[in-house]
Write a structure and sequence with these properties.
The protein has nine helices and no strands. By secondary structure, the protein is mainly alpha-helical.
Length: 182
């Protein structure tokens, strides 16, 4: 069973963390963001670092587990916000679209970002077919005019939609300033 910090230990921990962050110029996540809900952070720490399974969590932290598994409007809003942050950090800020990987489509359907009706799925299929054609067009343009970086970047973008790995064939993770032709 994990050892919980008492209130004075938590305060000392957060003060020391704040001091270390203030001294480090390379810190990207500030203490204030972590202090939003220390019970949630402790629960996440246990899952990620200690690796308790659902049975152990149910025995040791039943209230936190129940809250984590509840799909209330507030929790769905937080999840949607985390999903949007993930998309921005790992895709759009890198000049890449979010790929149409099945797991990503499932997540977006669960979050209500994508519709789940047969019509919504058909419209996504039509959009994907159009994107494939656009990708082929930009690939031809970037091959014919290799100095046109914008065409190579667009080709990379559309290619990334259908690529099944996170890193691209060029070995990079970003389409920003992409000059490689495919």
């Amino acid at each position: 069973m994990p050892h919980m910090l008492d209130a004075s230990q938590q305060t000392a921990y957060h003060q020391e963390l704040a001091r270390l962050e203030a001294e480090s110029p390379n810190v990207t996540h500030k203490t204030a963001a972590r202090l939003g809900n220390s019970a949630e952070n402790w629960f996440l720490f246990i899952i990620l670092h200690i690796g308790l399974n659902l049975t152990n969590l149910q025995e040791n932290m039943p209230n936190q587990l129940a809250e984590a598994l509840t799909q209330s409007p507030a929790s769905m809003k937080r999840i949607r916000s985390e999903w949007e942050l993930f998309v921005v950090n790992f895709f759009t800020d890198r000049g890449r679209p979010l790929p149409d990987w099945p797991i990503y489509v499932d997540i977006q359907e669960e979050l209500g970002i994508f519709g789940t009706s047969p019509l919504a799925r058909k419209l996504r299929k039509i959009r994907r077919n159009g994107q494939r054609k656009m990708g082929g067009m930009f690939q031809r343009i970037s091959t014919m005019f290799p100095k046109w970086g914008w065409a190579a970047q667009k080709s990379c973008y559309y290619h990334a939609l259908f690529w099944d790995n996170y890193d691209l064939p060029s070995g990079s993770y970003s389409c920003i300033n992409e000059t490689i032709t495919y």
